[in-house]
Amino acid sequence: MGKYISAVFLFFIFLGIYYAGSFTKIPFADCVGFILNAEKGGWTSVATATSHFLYINTVVLIKTLTRFNAIEASRLLVIISGAATVSIIFLTVKSITKTEWIALTSAFIFGFSFSFWRNAEIVEVYTYNSLWVSLFFFSMVKTFSENKRNYIIFSSLFLGISLWVHIQNILLIPALLVFLFYFRQQKKYFYSSLFLFAVLFSSLFILNISQGYPINSPYSSDQGNWVEDSLKKDTIQYVKDFFISFVYLFYNFNFFIFFGITGAILLYRTNRKMFYVFAAGSVCVYGFSTFYAVSDNYVFFIPFNIIFALSIGYGLSSARYSSFGRYSWTCLFIPLAYVLCFHIVLSTERGKEIHNFKAYKGGLNYYLLPWMNNNVGILEFTIDKKQAPEPIHWMTASALEYIELLKSKGYTEEEIKKL
What are the transmembrane regions (predicted)? Predict the structure, then answer.
């Protein structure tokens, strides 16, 4: 038990951080849609690209067991998943490097990374998804670094489960296949792992087809044609998307990017098999996320960001950077970097324009600061019939439905505005 004390310690630290910064009112984007589905209380029975079968049903289960409302049940799942993921990052890096301070530093860097931190403060699927993805990576690393063959089966189990949370994780199947290829001589574990994953993956299709849905339903949605639109961009837009992806990477990891790149190079030199496994996952996830035609594509980088955080840890383990240990505490100042960036951008004319344009949902606070306490709520916005300078009808439609549902349960408009 003693070897897990630091992981437990980290869990409670980030549980407190994420709870303190959690949303005060239901934010914009997809948040109200998730809460609406959970508030209805029915189990989701179909697994499409946007239904997030396991996430919604887990929230409903928490709501049923605890008697929390959908908002608090969602908050509980999100912040616990977020804090648990940080602990898994710590355990994974420690398994690779065998060094406590490096594992702690990597965990803090990832826990404070903007994309992950932001999603730990709102109602979204991505921290819960990250938990299963991080367990998948943890299992593969344990197999490589500690020669524990039972983790071969766990790797397929966790990736298979993650598909029921978010179908984006099919992009990690190449990583699993490369991983299994390297352990193909371990026939007992190889075939058991392959069979388990095949069952979990195929069950998505069986569930939907049994209810009359088309065979492509697990990876499609009637809410949009985002994949098709991603293939219709012009060359200039693809180039812009590529450079924007680097901006995302820098905002998440700042100068620690250097150690991430160093870690990848070091891993290639010292453990080429593990390198190719994570390279397969990285290329697929990063490539898809970069060009995916949705406004919030930054969230799709999170599985890649987990890999990059592990790479940062491996980079820090290099003998030539051993002296950095005395400066590892600098990762604790990452939140201040967000505040500094916010004020720098807000001091510019372009920054002020964006802040005013996006004021309906919090301005630059919404885009540059990861914490969401004292945020602008979509329910109050909708009830007061405020207007946004850009199309958000898909958000307000769910908000209106949720408002009517709450009114049927006896809530007044003034009470709803506070949610």
Answer: 7-29, 41-62, 74-93, 99-117, 126-145, 151-182, 189-209, 242-268, 275-294, 300-317, 329-346
